[in-house]
Design brief:
By secondary structure, the protein is of the alpha/beta class. Helices cover about 40% and strands about 15% of the residues. It contains 11 helices and 13 strands. It has helices spanning about 10-30, 35-50, 60-70, 90-95, 115-120, 140-145, 205-215, 235-265, 295-305, 335-340, 355-365; strands spanning about 55, 80, 100, 125-130, 155, 165, 170, 180-185, 195-200, 270-275, 280, 290, 345. A hairpin with a 2-residue loop joins β6 and β7. The protein is globular, with a radius of gyration of 20 Å. Bound molecules: pyridoxal-5'-phosphate. The site of pyridoxal-5'-phosphate has 15 residues, from α3 and α4. Pyridoxal-5'-phosphate binds near residues 59, 60, 88 and 131.
Length: about 375
């Protein structure tokens, strides 16, 4: 039985009528750019994230870019982040003219080490972007505590609806930092039918500036206070996402129960390390990522059996050719480099059947002779 890494058609089949109706409302209105559908989704995402403001934009990459522009980050500035993440986190730092400063990750959670972030601070440090990798939040309060006075942008592209217990209270992804950013790329837990992104903040002035920046830098049509971008959330995407949003919690809970099922089944396979979730976190398992010394062999073996898997991420960003100018060498971020050689993400999507989960489990166990 084939088990793809992700099966978006299986999900679409369960919500087709609701989504198509929502899309047709937009089509019939012929209002495609911003407008009521986008405003409604902005209110819903702000509510979900416990933030005062949410600003839709074209994708999660632009969400980071706009966030940095709104914080006046540019040439001569340094932004601290981790190299074990999707390229956009650091690509956008470069694209605003600033310098990415890479610090290593916690090998258990793959998230930033607050002490390493503090140690990397210089007089040019203008921000820090902790990434909430694979569905669990970075230790956002510890990062903010380690960098007093530095605005923090939480890259929550993979983590909408995840939460973390801070001082005994549940805090949502995007709630605590200066700015939080989301992606609605189709493979995310809340994925659009195309690209989309959103920025959340508690700060009204930042929200107003973000709204201007996504519309060429002007609050009023044809009048520009600064040079911005064309980065708007499409009304059709907003309608799709609004229709999907009521399902998000259930889908993420199903991912958690799939993860627990795998965890139990792999408990006696010493060759692999199952994902570690910080006890303060509730993960939404955008990925279920195991570690093993024999990763490439396992991936080929699973592929032969029709089981999908993926390597997120095979080369840490500090060693990417485009960042050679920064001067990092192999060994600069050893935990990120080790993770890149050992990680493998397995199918975890909510529509997986028990038979499919068992197929994945059997494949992994068989490879190690269990
Ligand atoms: C950690 C991280 N940051 C940023 C992005 C960029 O989002 P998008 O693909 O919507 O531009 C993604 C997703 O692809 C991501 O996983």
């Amino acid at each position: 039985m084939p088990v793809p890494l992700l099966d978006l058609r299986a999900q679409h089949a369960t919500i087709r009528d609701e989504v198509v109706a929502a899309m047709m409302d937009v089509v019939d209105s012929q209002l495609f750019i911003l407008g009521a559908a986008v405003e409604r989704l902005e209110r819903s995402v702000a509510e979900l994230s416990h933030t005062k403001h949410a600003v839709g934009c074209a994708n999660g990459t632009d969400a980071l870019l706009l966030a940095m522009r709104a914080l006046d980050i540019g040439r001569g500035d340094e932004v601290i982040t981790t190299p074990f993440t999707f390229f956009a986190t650091a690509g956008t730092i470069h694209n605003v003219g600033a310098t990415p400063v890479f610090v290593d990750i916690d090998p258990a959670t793959f998230n930033i080490l607050p002490d390493a972030a503090a140690a990397a601070r210089t007089s040019r440090t203008k921000s820090c972007i902790p990434v909430d990798l694979f569905g669990q939040m970075a230790p956002i309060e510890a990062v903010m505590g380690a960098l007093p006075g530095i605005p923090v942008i939480e890259d929550a592209a993979q983590t909408i609806g995840a939460r973390r217990s801070i001082d005994g209270e549940w805090r949502m992804a995007g709630e605590v930092p200066t700015i939080g950013t989301f992606s609605f790329f189709p493979s995310k837990n809340l994925g659009g039918y195309g690209d989309g992104g959103m920025i959340v903040t508690q700060d009204e002035a930042l929200a107003a500036r973000l709204r201007r920046l996504r519309m060429h830098g002007g609050a009023k049509m044809y009048f520009h206070d600064e040079v911005g971008y064309n980065s708007r959330l499409d009304a059709l995407q907003a309608a799709v996402l609004q229709a999907k949003l009521p399902h998000l919690q259930g889908w993420s809970a199903k991912r958690r129960s799939n993860a627990a099922y795998y965890d139990r089944a792999f408990a006696d396979v010493p060759e692999i390390r199952t994902p570690a979730v910080d006890p303060a976190n509730e993960s939404i398992y955008n990925q279920y990522t195991i570690r093993t010394d024999r990763r490439d062999g396992l991936q080929s073996f699973l592929k032969e059996r029709g089981i999908g898997s993926a390597i997120y991420y095979p080369l840490p960003l500090h060693l990417q050719p485009c960042f050679a100018y920064l001067g990092y060498k192999k060994g600069s971020c050893p935990e990120s480099e080790r993770a890149a050689g050992e990680v493998l993400s397995l199918p975890i999507y909510p529509e997986l059947t028990k038979a499919q989960l068992d197929e994945v489990i059997e494949g992994v166990r068989a490879y190690y002779g269990h």
